[in-house]
Each structure stands twice: as structure tokens, then as C-alpha cells.
Amino acid sequence: MKQITLQILRTGYGGEDDRSRWERFDVPVPTGRSTVLDALIWARRHTDPTLAFRNACRVGMCGTCGVRVDGRETLACRTYLQPSETSGSDAPEIRIEPLRILPIVQDLITDRAPLHAAIDRLPGVSRDDEPASTGTQATDPDAAARDCILCGLCVSACSVAGLNPGFLGPAALVRASVALDARGGPEAAGVLDAVGGSDGATGCHTLFECTAVCPRGVAPTVAIQRLKRRVVKRQLGRLLRTSSRTGG
Amino acid sequence: MLQRVSGLLLAGYLFFHLGVINLSLAGAETFDTVTKWVQHPVFTVLDNLLIALVLYHAINGVRVMLLETGFGLRRQASMFWISIAATAGIAAYMLYLNIPLIFR
Amino acid sequence: MAELSYRKYEAPSGEFWLWFLQRVTGLLLIALVLLHGWFNHFAQIDAFEAGLQDEPVVFSVVADRLTRVGFIALDLALLTLVLFHGLNGVRTVLLEWRPAARRRRAVTRSLIGIGVAAWVVTFIALVVLIL
What we know:
The complex is a heterotrimer.
Chain A: E1 2-10, E2 21-29, H1 36-46, E3 66-69, E4 72-75, E5 93-97, E6 104-106, E7 109-110, H2 113-120, H3 141-144, H4 153-157, H5 159-163, H6 170-182, H7 185-194, H8 209-213, H9 220-247
Parallel strand pairs in A: 1-5
Antiparallel strand pairs in A: 1-2, 3-4, 3-5, 6-7
Helix pairs in contact in A: 2-6, 6-9
Chain B: H1 2-24, H2 28-38, H3 41-68, H4 76-102
Chain C: H1 13-49, H2 59-65, H3 69-95, H4 101-130
């Protein structure tokens, strides 16, 4: 049978200075449609029952199995293995690490609380208020933004989030954009004020790192540039109003 | 990231440039001494590097501003390569113009 | 209106204006730097190659240019905008490393100090030359 070697970064076992360490798992690959998640489940069942990772739906809908495979953010259940006939030390090797920026709970499991905390910083936007999909997303990029499953891959991939822990991050900014589409008035103004600084939309460097890894085809970069334009409009409008009030 | 690096280098150069110019403006003689120095071919080569740096920073800045105003968000990869090609093209032309100053 | 149980966040609008002005000054600088490069280098090199000047850069030409209002305005605008754009850029890069609030203020203040000092020194040098 074909085989693959997983190098998994394991964290959370105490010991001397509690450091992360790489551990090797040799895993058989029965079909050409086997995923990284299948390999992780095999390794936990047959090699080490303490190997910690999270999964639920197995079809890329729930967003709980996000990891980094060879340095790139992806859902383990949507990433296919490319094994070869060779086995043992010649088998192809992949590196599996937890997502960045989010705190590690154990091994590949990360704490998603920062994703929710960032949404909580947006006034009037609730994390329970799910961005319900309308089913029209195929052609409309803004409707596609409602398909965000809050998996956190975009945040892990974002250089700005990596540098500035106060940055709201692509996921929360997509939520802000969706909320602005849904409502206007004073609530929208509050959201725009929250995303108008270096911790918000204007902190984005437009590097498309988030867009490249999104498993749902959401383009956070596009949503964030729309936010920037809305912030510019609001601030310029505000300036004109104040100057006409004081001037006239 | 390169935008930051080129920006920081240019900020550093700005102060060097201001310092040299301020010193050289003291009078015709100091000015001539300074301009003698900076006409050395080595400085011309450095000037070409400076031109390339300014071009990169300016063209990349325009590219980012276009993306921010909503142009080309769906074709960002080609936008990037077009900006690199434009930078390289103009920088090469500037170098061509300056060749007589380097080898004179 | 019910009190919100968690702290809502509002970005200081000063940060927005610095971001916005960085773009505005960037665009203006493209035009000004082109003019600056043209008058200070390429126009003079052309004159030198046409045999109008002994040297590519001549003090009298520079001094003469600085007696004209247009060039003085160009140089002052360039000086002001380039200092703002450059130092504001440096500030953005430094603050992205998220220093403590106290350090942030120190960064901002020292960069303003450097900018004002550089502006004044260069302004004096220009005035001395013009007079």
C-alpha cells in the first residue's frame, strides 16, 4: 500500500520548558482520495491516541479542522494526500502545524476565542448573528462574503495580524462588511468608526494572503478595500459637515 | 514588505540628501567641491539605484491605491507583474540615459 | 438603551487621517519628485551636453533658480510633503510592532521633533541662500 510520513508539531505536554516538538507518523494511504484528516484519524487510532486535533463535518462546511500543511493554511478535510509507492524513510513527507496567531490548546487544536473577541469589538455586530447565505453567491462577491465559516485560516495567514496583535483581522472585517450591507444609519457609523484605524481596515496591506487560503471562496481583501472606501467617505463627509457648520 | 523596505531606505536617503544639500548651499566654493565629489561615476551608479528605488516605491504605491479604490482586485497577480515590469522598464531606460555619465 | 456588557472599540480618527494623508501626499510627491528630478538633473545634463554649461551642475544656475517664486514654492512644498510622507511612513512601520502606549507617544513625538528640526534647518539654509 502507498504510504506517507506526517511530521506533526506537538505542543502542550509540559516537561522541560514546555517546548513544541516534531513527531513522525508513518501512515498508509488506501485511496487516491485520502485527505490529511483521514491520515490524522488513522494516526490517532493506530499510533498515538493522545494526538490532539479537531474535526466535525469532514466536508469543508464547519471550519473546525484548520491546520497548516507545509506552511500553508488549509482545512485538513479538504486537502488530498499525494503518497508514493515507496515506503519507510523514502515515503513523501508533509509537515502539519497548528494555525498561527490563535493560542494553541494542544497539538493541532487552537483556541478560536480571539476570532470572536475581534467581532465583539464591532459595535452592533453580534457573533451569534450568523451571516446567513442567500444562495445567490455564485456571481456576487459581496454575497460570497456571507459564506464565511469563521475557520480562522485567513487570520493565521495574515502578516499584519502576525505583527500587530491588536489588528481586527480579515474574518472580523468581513463580518463588519456584511453587517454594513445589512443595515445603515447610526449603527453603520459605529462600525465604520471601529474599522477606521490602523487596527482596522486601513491597517490592511492589501497582500491577498487571506484571500489565497479561504476555503469558502470569500475574498476578505475585496471586502476590506470596500470598507476602506466607506471609511474614507464617512470621514470626508464628517469633515465637510463640521467645516460647513463652523464656516457658515 | 518591499514597500516598507524601500520606504525606509528612501527616508534614510532623505536625511543624507538634506544634510549634503544644506552643507553645499553654504556658498559657491563648497557647492563646487560637493558637486565634484558626487559626479564621480560611483555616485552616478548609486543615483541609478536611487531612481529605481523611487520608481518602485511610487509605482507600487499607485498599484496599492488602485486596489484600494477597487480597480483590478480580481486581477491582482497581473497588476503586480505589470507594476514590476513598468518599474524595471523605466529604470533600465534611466540607466541607458546615464551611461555616458558613468563612462566619461 | 441597554448598556453593553463588553467594551466597544472606536479607532481614533487621527489614525485615519494620517493614513489618508499618506496617500494624498504620496500622489502629490510623484508629481513633485518628477519636477525636482527634471529641473535639478536632467535639464542641467541636457544643457551641459548642449555646451551651454561647463559642468552638469553649476552653482549659479541653482542660485539663480532660487530667486524665482515658483521654484522656491516647489522646493518648500517638496520639503514639507516629503518630510511628512517619510516620517509618517517610518511611524507606521514602527507602531506596527505594537510598542507600549508610552513608547508610542515617544515615537510620535520624536519623529515630529526630527521633522520640524529638519524642516527649520533646511528652511534656514534656503533663506540664507536666497538672501
